Amino acid sequence: MAIHYPNGKKYTLTPNKTPSTTYGNRGMTLEEDLNVTNAFYRDRGICLIHKKPTPVQIVRVDYPKRSAARITEAYFKKPSTTDYNGVYQGRYIDFEAKETRNPSALPLQNFHEHQIQHMEQVKAHNGIAFIIIKFHNEGTPYLVDADLILDYWKAQDSGGRKSIPKKIIIANGQTISIGLHPRIDYIKAVDAIYF
Amino acid sequence: MAIHYPNGKKYTLTPNKTPSTTYGNRGMTLEEDLNVTNAFYRDRGICLIHKKPTPVQIVRVDYPKRSAARITEAYFKKPSTTDYNGVYQGRYIDFEAKETRNPSALPLQNFHEHQIQHMEQVKAHNGIAFIIIKFHNEGTPYLVDADLILDYWKAQDSGGRKSIPKKIIIANGQTISIGLHPRIDYIKAVDAIYF
Q1: Does the bond joining A182 to the residue before it have cis omega, within 30 degrees of 0?
Q2: What is the value of ipTM here, to two decimals?
Q3: Could you report the per-residue pLDDT of B73-102, keeping only the tens digit for each?
């Protein structure tokens, strides 16, 4: 089913494509940094985690002679899972990365129902599920277990907040150290929480 | 990089789209059957396994007013991993499904280098990696540990066979029971081999 989300994520703010002064002047989005980090982890044999491809509904494909098949009509689909998964020390690892321009809280509208359900299922199957969160006004991302998001998500129905305060994220999560190699060394935070 | 593989898999034979008399007359491909099976497993809380989206390089997108963003130029990319992964009893599960029209052996050209490397890495991280193989001339698929494919793959360099005989697959693998719900009950074979 085609839907109207240009990047498959209705509520995620568009990552800053221009060089950012708040994030090491590299102009990298959180996603780009995580992709480079995951490649580093794979090369070093630390863990095996990939970003899933963006789901696309393909409607029409041309097959020109002697050149690559060309998709000429397709639509973005809503992902049914989180974006990243893989294996670390035999355990199943699953996470979602979120950037927000909000300086003091992570709006829950950054998530959609499918992602919430998926994270619940990962926990039910004894997998490791977490979120990496980056606030636009600072360089350091945080890692929190998915339970924090699941708790806040459920509390909305009984009049709870529509966002998770940054101080709650800091109190319940781990600060991720950033550097050059790897850029976002989140596996240390995984070690601290789960191993 | 755009490449000339209409379905992202150069060597996989096109699954039979017409009703098949050899496979329960349902006209379903192995992939379709696995998707239905995985949905069944998820609904029952047995395991949480998804097929990864087909990787696509998006070149041009139109954003018409008041309707869905439309991809007007894109190309198939070679997948960097296997097609299926997820979690079962906390363990990381990773597999590839292959159909072949060859009645007596699985040609190794059904795999590409990236998939082989990925399966090796999964094993190195203590994940569970296997292949589900369906020969076109019979209904029953087989499940074999990835090591069998990795062994044959490596042996090619020293003059080994270019395919894995079906009798070797049967001797080293598990026969998967097929039915209506679930269609391809591969988790029983996983239990038998890994748990």
Answers
A1: yes
A2: 0.84
A3: 999 999 999 999 999 999 999 999 999 999
Task: Give the gap in angstroms from C-alpha B49 to the nearest C-alpha of chain A.
Answer: 10
Burial category of B23 from C-beta neighbours within 10 Å (exposed 0-12, middle 13-18, buried 19 and up): buried
Least CA distance to B121: which residue of chain A? A48
Which residue, among B40, B48, B54, would best test binding to A if mutated, counting the most A CBs under 10 Å from its CB? Answer: B48
pLDDT tens for each residue of A34-71: 999 999 999 999 999 999 999 999 999 999 998 999 99
**What six digits make up the tokens of A138?**
């600072």
Q: Does position A11 have pLDDT exceeding 90, yes or no?
A: no
- Residues in chain A with CB shorter than 8 Å from the CB of B124 are 45, 48
Size of interface A-B (CB pairs under 8 A): 135
For an interface test with A, give the residue of B75, B76, B116, B125 to mutate (most A CBs within 10 A). Answer: B125
Give pLDDT, residue B181. Answer: 93
Instruction: Determine the residue type at B70.
Output: R
How many Å is the Cα radius of gyration of chain B? 18
SS3 B172: helix
Closest CA to B133 of B40, B18, B12, B20: B12
